[in-house]
Design brief:
This protein is an alpha+beta fold. It contains nine helices and 16 strands. It has helices spanning about 15-25, 70-80, 90-100, 100-110, 125-130, 155-170, 225-240, 270-275, 280-300, and strands spanning about 1-5, 30, 35-40, 45-50, 55, 60-65, 85, 115-120, 140, 150-155, 175-180, 185-195, 195-205, 220, 245-250, 255-260. The strands form four sheets. Strands 14-13-12-15-16 form a five-stranded antiparallel beta sheet, with helices on both faces. The protein is globular and about 60 Å long. The two termini are about 25 Å apart.
Length: about 300
């Protein structure tokens, strides 16, 4: 098969692993810089141009779209979809997962467990907002933040009021969430492919830090997850409409809580921690889906 990886940086671990794993399985794999793609939206024949050439003949596309280029990246991916290329994750699912507020609203509607979360616009509502999530300590998150940036733990009500006021003064959109103390500065990253959790790791924050992101110095280790954690992760990915997702869970006194659903989960931390060939499992999923699509097309043709 001819497969495109949408990525700005071919030397990133996840991108290079996906290229290497695809070639190992006999595929022709091209890494395409998302921002260098430009599109022709002609009627009947949408095309994508790249470095003076028309991109064509691709069977599947693996989007590795960074949060800062979500708008343009999903537009490029949508164009590939219009050309009949199979997307590992659809553009609409990526947009849904990247919008933190919308994703939490969708998870809540489907009854997926998550920390009590508040959202408000007016500074006049700060006191009630804090009470609504159970008071201090609480976590304040920038809606546009990634990799633990823009996440603050306010240990007292006074600190919470000051931080929320400061963010609101800067016209920043924030979420206020209950702090799950019993998680002990750890979360679980479940890597979902299709309808299975194919790998899971525990990320433990450094002493004195509550953010467990590996980019913030968190330590990764293999963990055995419970059936409830497994089903919660799969359900969360399904609610977002993602075929491949990194679902971050917290262990609380009332069961697993979803913190975030990531549409472009990194491979380095989880492959190193678990020793699993996650990139190979992603290709196995793509191969299976394309085979199913071909079979259903043939069946329709015969009907």
């Amino acid at each position: 098969m001819k497969i495109a990886i949408l990525s700005r940086n071919p030397s990133l671990y996840s991108t290079s692993r996906l290229k290497e794993a695809g070639e190992k399985r006999g595929h022709e794999v091209h890494v395409i810089d998302t921002l260098r793609c430009y599109m022709n939206m002609a009627t009947h024949k949408p095309t994508i141009h790249y470095q003076g050439q028309v991109l064509e003949g691709f069977d599947a596309i693996i989007p590795r779209i960074g949060a800062s280029i979500t708008f343009y990246g999903t537009a490029v991916l949508r164009q590939f979809e219009m050309m009949g290329v199979f997307p590992l994750n659809e553009s609409v699912a990526i947009s849904r997962a990247r919008d933190k507020l919308r994703s939490l609203q969708l998870l809540s509607r489907k009854g997926v467990g998550m920390p009590v979360t508040g959202f408000a616009h007016s500074p006049d509502d700060i006191r009630d907002l804090i009470s609504m999530v159970g008071g201090a300590p609480l976590v304040i998150k920038l809606l546009e933040g990634t990799q633990g940036i823009g996440v603050v733990l306010a240990e007292t009500r006074k600190a919470a009021e000051s931080v929320i006021e400061a963010f609101m003064g800067l016209k920043a959109n924030i979420l206020v969430q209950e702090f799950i103390k019993e998680a002990g500065g750890a979360d679980i990253r479940c890597f979902v492919v299709g309808d299975k959790v194919v790998a899971a790791m525990k990320r433990q924050a450094q002493p004195g830090e509550f953010r467990s992101n590996l980019h913030r110095g968190g330590q990764a280790s293999v963990i055995k997850i419970t059936p409830e954690e497994r089903s919660t992760a799969v359900r969360a990915a399904r609610v977002m409409g993602l075929n491949v997702a990194g679902v971050d869970l917290l262990r609380s006194n009332h069961g697993p809580l979803v913190m975030e659903v990531n549409s472009s989960p990194g491979l380095e931390g989880i492959e190193n921690a678990t020793g699993k060939d996650i990139a190979g499992l992603i290709y196995a999923f793509i191969e299976k889906k394309i085979q199913e699509n071909k079979s259903s097309t043939r069946t329709k043709g015969q009907g």
